[in-house]
Design a protein that fits this description.
The protein has about 525 residues and is of the alpha+beta class. It has 15 helices and 15 strands.
């Protein structure tokens, strides 16, 4: 880990001693007695080695014995990083912990592991807070970074902030991109790939559905929906929300579907059966009531009585504010479950099958999860098609081919009958790329817990993902240098499988252990770091 450690004979012992020292530093005498720890480790020796580790700085990637240790706080920054990266957070003014995505320390629970994933590669990574009241100070401070990993939930920059905060932040991120920096995810990627109408952009690709439509006004919704729902069952998706709220499965009641699209148009009084996918509850309404709810909400005149706990008004604010509805055909094999491709840049990290329990929706606690590694035969065809062929095509179709792929994103796929009898193909149900959470870390957010409360099993499992994020971020920065003349490095990366390797908080000022002040020789380890070596 550090320059003073030599690897060769005795390397494992040195690394093991370092790991024991980290653990010693962060446990009380009572905890050590209870766990039977360090019975043979002299107190003086542990303190001496701890003092050395606090002052030392390292160059290059960490050796595996140290990288596989547990770190509940930000690791020390390396001596000579090739790249400087930062994780950007935002705390909602007045909200407990700074938002429901935060732990008791005010951080997203996954932010520290993400930053440490970069540090383990031998590159630096700070955690920097954005404040709407200190925009200029923030803008000046982040100029030194080669890349920014933005971990701000959609909509948070509009909660309790000055007017125009989101626009100023997006403008700054776009300026960073123009200077050759990388931003994950860029404003364009969030808008063009993360919004539901991305499904319209890819409707002519093999992973899309050709009869996909987007509505941005009440007139568009009324004329379009009355035609599509007269032809076949539909799925109507709002742009906002991430837990199935405002996603409606729609069937025509007491009336036959027309034979060909456009042969018929529904009337206001035609009846519909609706299921909202957040909780699978069923409602029955007329076409007029459904359209009124979507445009003006449940309390509007003519909306009828609604059971949904969410307010409708899906077009509110217009397209610029994210007001939109997407209309797709209903794929009945969704009852078999969705297949999530968990992506880190162009690299597939995990395949997750989400099978609904007790309904048609594979959302939240309503699903059973099965995990598959890349290369699993069950989804070999989907993996080959999506990772190798479709990613460059969809980026071109969405007009984001010159932006970096999100550092963490997902594509959710629905099975459909293939062209050949007995075969299965997959179509995209949605992309998530704005601020995808890492579930085994985020499971402890929102209350009094922090990263230290995540179990060892969940911690090390989730760190496989954050460590891959670190190595992939550095690979993408390397590629940016190679293609700095304007070549399309994203498509090149997406076509070429990468060999996967395991690899400060700041309020616009460097904190202890940051690389912001090269004249400060102190490199103290954070007080709550733990490092219990695995295996």
């Amino acid at each position: 880990m550090f320059r003073a450690l030599r690897f060769g004979a005795g390397a494992a012992a040195a690394a093991g001693s370092a790991a024991m020292t980290y653990t010693y530093m962060t446990t009380t005498a009572e905890q050590r007695r209870e766990r039977g720890m360090f019975a043979a480790l002299p107190h003086a020796y542990a303190q001496e080695l701890a003092g050395f580790l606090e002052k030392a700085r390292f160059s290059g990637p960490l050796p595996p014995a140290i990288a596989r240790c547990r770190f509940n706080e930000l690791m020390p920054q390396p001596l000579n990083p090739q790249f400087k990266v930062c994780v950007v957070e935002f705390n909602v003014p007045g909200a407990k912990n700074g938002g429901t995505d935060k732990g008791a320390n005010g951080h997203r629970v996954d932010s520290i592991p993400i930053a440490n994933g970069v540090i383990k590669t031998g590159n630096s990574c700070e955690i920097v807070k954005y404040y709407d009241t200190k925009h200029d100070e923030f803008a000046k401070y982040v100029q030194k970074f080669d890349a920014l990993i933005v971990r701000i939930n959609p909509g948070q920059l509009s909660q309790g902030t000055m007017p125009g905060t989101q626009e100023r932040f997006d403008s700054l991120m776009n300026d960073m991109l123009k200077k050759g920096k990388l931003v994950w995810s860029s404003p364009d990627v969030q808008t063009k790939m993360g919004a539901k109408d991305a499904l319209v952009g890819i409707k002519n690709l093999s992973c899309g559905l050709e009869d996909t439509f987007a509505y941005y006004s009440a007139d568009d919704l009324e004329s379009g929906f009355k035609k599509t729902c007269a032809f076949q069952p539909r799925v109507i998706k709002q742009n906002r929300g991430s837990a199935g709220e405002g996603i409606w499965l729609v069937w025509l009641q007491d009336k036959e579907y027309c034979k060909n699209f456009g042969d018929a148009t529904l009337s206001d009084s035609d009846k519909l059966k609706l299921i909202e996918m957040n909780d699978n509850h069923v409602e029955y309404h007329t076409v007029k009531e459904f359209i009124t709810f979507c445009v003006d909400g449940p309390d509007a005149e003519g909306a009828g009585e609604w059971k949904s706990t969410f307010p409708g008004k899906y077009l509110e604010g217009g397209k610029e504010a994210g007001g939109q509805l997407v209309d797709q055909r209903f794929c009945p094999r969704i009852s078999e479950g969705e297949v999530r491709m968990l992506m880190v840049g162009p690299v597939l990290q995990m395949i997750i099958h989400k099978k609904p329990e007790g309904g048609l929706s594979a959302v939240g606690g309503n699903s059973a999860y099965t995990y598959y590694k890349p290369g699993s035969p069950e989804y070999a065809g989907l993996e080959a098609d999506f990772v190798t062929r479709d990613i460059p095509l969809l980026m071109k179709a969405l007009d984001i081919e010159n932006d970096p792929l999100p550092i963490l994103w997902t594509g959710d796929f629905i099975p459909v009958d293939g062209k050949e009898p007995g075969t299965t193909e997959y179509v995209v149900g949605e992309f998530n790329c704005s601020c995808v959470g890492i579930s085994k870390f985020q499971a402890v957010c929102g209350g009094e817990k922090t990263l230290a409360d995540v179990s060892d099993a969940d911690y090390f499992d989730a760190c496989e993902l954050t460590d891959l994020m670190g190595t992939t971020a550095i690979k993408m920065l390397d590629e940016r240098k190679k293609f700095s003349s304007g070549g399309n490095f994203i498509q090149s990366d997406a076509r070429t499988p990468w060999r996967r390797t395991t690899g400060p908080q700041s309020d616009a000022t460097p904190s202890r252990g940051s690389d912001g002040d090269s004249k400060n020789p102190q490199r103290a380890l954070p007080a709550r770091v733990t490092a219990a070596a695995r295996g």
